[in-house]
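Lecture notes, structural biology module. Today: joint structure prediction for complexes of two components.
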Amino acid sequence: MSVNLLTDKAREIEALLDEVLPPVSTRPAPIHEAMRYAVLGGGKRLRAIMAVAACESVGGDGRQAHGLAAAVEMIHAYSLVHDDLPSMDDDDLRRGKPTVHRKYGEAVAILTGDALLTAAFAELARMPEKYGIDFATTVAVIAELAEASGSQGMVGGQTADILAAQAGAMARDEVELLRYIHSHKTGALFTAVLRCGGMIGGASPRQLASLTTYGEHFGLAFQITDDILDEIGSEAALGKATRKDQAMGKLTYPRVFGLEQAKAMARESVRQCLQALDELPEDTHILRELALMVVERDR
Amino acid sequence: MSVNLLTDKAREIEALLDEVLPPVSTRPAPIHEAMRYAVLGGGKRLRAIMAVAACESVGGDGRQAHGLAAAVEMIHAYSLVHDDLPSMDDDDLRRGKPTVHRKYGEAVAILTGDALLTAAFAELARMPEKYGIDFATTVAVIAELAEASGSQGMVGGQTADILAAQAGAMARDEVELLRYIHSHKTGALFTAVLRCGGMIGGASPRQLASLTTYGEHFGLAFQITDDILDEIGSEAALGKATRKDQAMGKLTYPRVFGLEQAKAMARESVRQCLQALDELPEDTHILRELALMVVERDR
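The predicted structure, tokenised, for the full assembly:
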């Protein structure tokens, strides 16, 4: 039941992205083909569903968050395309298909990531015209997403992750580094999209604080589960290689805390997510489903 | 004299960028060190000088274009970092120094480019707060720069360039392809920065049209000269490898039109630039100097 609900939402986002991305016939065709390949055809669409749900949770019209939803999926897709590159995580499979550089070559993959990141900001800048968002909110959303994605957000987390893996033997404070990496690499974008969805919906400062709390705990639960799945999950279900983190010497929650404690930490984060939702005035059932699903998923 | 003027302007932009980029001590330090390495310490700063000059040419306060100036230099620097990568142009030298991937490794170089592109949009979104630009103009500037940099602008041009070089033997219509590549790879960003500087300065539609004309011809003159310098310039003056285009089988103006005709085309473009300036109400001497300098430069 709840899985069907999220699947339906994901299908709506897929249709939105199909419409927002330029058609393959757009010149130069190879980059537009690769952009569509990188973004379309799967994915849980957590971030986009969250954008819409956060907007609705404070009484906004969820359709007004569609620009944000499309943009954040493009940012997420760009980060995967670049993270998968040979000089980074060197992955051959993503969502059960060859990664972008395996299919289109490394040069086109780098450019595809660049193009998707740029297209995300273009789409955000179209929010006033397409969705009637006021200019001040549009600028605030762009600022928040850019901060969360940049060198002190997602890219910073990925940099720390890559450098920690390259350095091999671990830092003085493993737990602190692990938290830093994941709160930046994964958490920052979740939190930003929830806050931006809230802003579009007209959230009060207090409601934004609740969405922020939800986002931080969601990000943690998500990342712990990701680490656990990398260790014990099935390659077939995940559609990508498993046990990569260990092979690359990456810090993970099960490695640092042990499997059972990691699972308990994820459950505790979900409890905090659900508690944060109590502060929100409108329908929060999608955000609730997302929080419950995130630790139960097998992919 | 005119060279000193542009050198002074470049020094001002350098100081601005030094202030805008996060200090090296910002965590994670390696990415912030690499971002500063990629952006600071040289470069003609044409795009930034143009942003300020375009703003002033329509009667605006040039300091209000400083956010745009910093952002466009970050976008330009990101494009160089990614273009220099081994899977793209595979360059070892840039501005007389090792390229970012030679100094910091390929993974950090990819992330540095990503971080700079993201930081550019963050800086643009700060224009209302830092420079008093209204929200509607800020959104228009972000939209214009994102379009010009993306898959149907700069990234599109770079994609077509890489694919044409890989394909080797050339297309049915070499001239059309050459124009497409360069008007997108180089021209689109010049034109966008001139238009955005104009918008910040409060340009009328007619003034924006003149800045657009200037930008298109400037881009052409710039690219033709770049191609000529790659063929006949000195590696020492340029601070990067020369005769790369030919080695990579790239389409260039001297290759397609011959050296003399290419030079004549560049001069004609400069004439068109100067003519477009006649339509602008205020001081245009910097834009004039830039147009004259672009074909006379040796780097």
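Point to remember: Residues 37 and 266 of chain A are 32 Å apart (CA to CA).
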